[in-house]
Design a protein that fits this description.
With 339 residues, the protein is α/β, with parallel strands linked by helices. It has one domain: TIM Barrel, CATH 3.20.20.70. Helix content is 29%, strand content 17%. A 12-stranded mixed β-sheet has the order 7-8-9-6-5-4-3-2-1-10-11-12. A hairpin with a 5-residue loop joins β8 and β9. The longest helix has 13 residues. The protein starts with 20 loop residues before the first strand and ends with a helix. 45% of the residues are buried. The chain binds S-adenosylmethionine and iron/sulfur cluster. The site of S-adenosylmethionine has 20 residues, from β3, β5 and α12.
């Protein structure tokens, strides 16, 4: 692997926001097809366009040298990428050196049983597992063919390996909306926080986006009929707002890109498995880092390309879902940028 000789320097965008968080989509492929994320007949990126794991490691290391302190691996499903653990192990050297505060992962959990112990041995301390229902039939409906038992076994394996697990649940009208209180009680009962997410208008998934959208303002007011929620001050530079649920003692997050704007404190950028940087999840902005990465063994070219991209980071997104806006706000699917 190529060592980077860059000096630590802050990446600051035109609105004064310092970039310290990198999300890396290591593959756009997935073993599931959640209907709000992908169409059934997705066209995936040609394998030839993908960065190798060594190139991903080099690119991530350049970001770390430039001030990234937290790195999240995502996808598609990160655990379906072949030899994925070699990337996790390589990146863990930045935890050992103290250059990185956290290396983490967002996964659908279906392959976690196989990889949980190795993730923990690489210094991963907590992970997010996406799970929208506890009902096997509903799970198969949402994911088009997934088996919930694999995910539940994966969660147990992660906990047994000492990983802290947070559950991410997309709130879906008429699909899981009645189950949300049970999901919260289950997650909190198992020692896991849970974060609810509003459906975002990313990627063409066929008809139905408007029908899926369930505003979290409505979910919250319903939950308040059943639980006592106390807002917490906690902020992670991201979209989530947290509350403590008195009855369970657990923490409940709300990611509300549509009903609240959260962009003023945004500290993150995203790279895809082909080396494209997106500085905003909710805008079409994109810059290529693969060409400068491959053009030279010297990291300076990539570093300059990163600075140029961050210099154009948009102020914020303008997601809208309503009957007049049934097309996606952003054409790329969530599986390309990893959320
Ligand atoms: N496959 C992994 C997983 O499902 O956790 C990682 C990638 S997935 C794209 C990351 C997160 O994005 C998941 O929690 C998923 O539920 C969420 N997601 C996907 N499409 C979404 C959409 N259109 N709106 C809101 N969340 C979405
Ligand atoms: Fe796959 Fe995750 Fe998208 Fe579901 S949400 S299809 S698990 S990438």
């Amino acid at each position: 692997m190529i060592a980077t000789a860059l000096q630590p320097q802050d990446m600051i965008d035109p609105f004064g926001r310092t970039i310290t968080y990198l999300r890396v989509s290591v593959t756009d492929r997935c073993d599931l097809r959640c209907f709000y994320c992908m169409s059934e007949d997705m066209t995936f990126l040609p394998k030839a366009d993908l960065l190798t794991l060594e190139e991903l490691d080099r690119l991530c290391s350049i970001f770390i040298a430039k001030g990234v302190r937290k790195l999240r691996l995502t996808g598609g499903e990160p655990l379906v990428r072949r030899n994925m653990m070699s990337l996790v192990r390589a990146l863990s050297r930045h935890l050992t050196s103290g250059a990185l505060d956290e290396l983490t992962l967002t996964t659908n959990g279906s392959l976690l049983s196989k990889f949980a112990a190795e993730l923990a041995s690489c210094g991963v301390r907590r992970i997010n597992v996406s799970l929208d229902t506890l009902d096997a039939d509903c799970f198969r409906h949402i994911t088009r063919w997934g088996e919930i038992d694999k995910v539940l076994a994966g969660i147990r394996a992660a906990q047994a390996a000492g990983l802290r697990v947070k559950i991410n649940t997309v709130a879906l009208k008429n699909i899981n909306e009645d189950e949300i209180p049970q999901l919260i009680e289950w997650a909190h009962g198992e020692g896991m926080d849970l974060t609810l997410i509003e459906v975002m208008p990313l990627g063409d998934i066929g008809p139905g986006r408007v029908d899926q959208y369930l505003p979290l303002s409505l979910v919250r007011s319903r939950l308040e009929g059943r639980f006592s929620l106390t807002d917490l001050d906690e902020r992670t530079g991201g979209p989530a707002r947290y509350a403590r649920v008195r009855e369970t003692g657990g923490k409940l997050g709300f990611i509300t890109p549509l009903t609240h704007n959260f962009c003023e404190s945004c500290n993150r950028v995203r790279i895809t498995c082909t080396g494209t940087i997106h500085t905003c999840l909710g805008q079409e902005d994109a810059s290529d880092l693969r060409r400068p990465l491959r053009a030279s063994d010297d990291d300076a070219l990539v570093s300059e390309a990163i600075d140029r991209a961050i210099g154009t980071k948009p102020k914020g997104h303008d997601f809208i879902i309503d009957r007049r806006h049934s097309r996606p706000s952003v054409s790329r699917h969530m599986s390309v940028t990893g959320g």
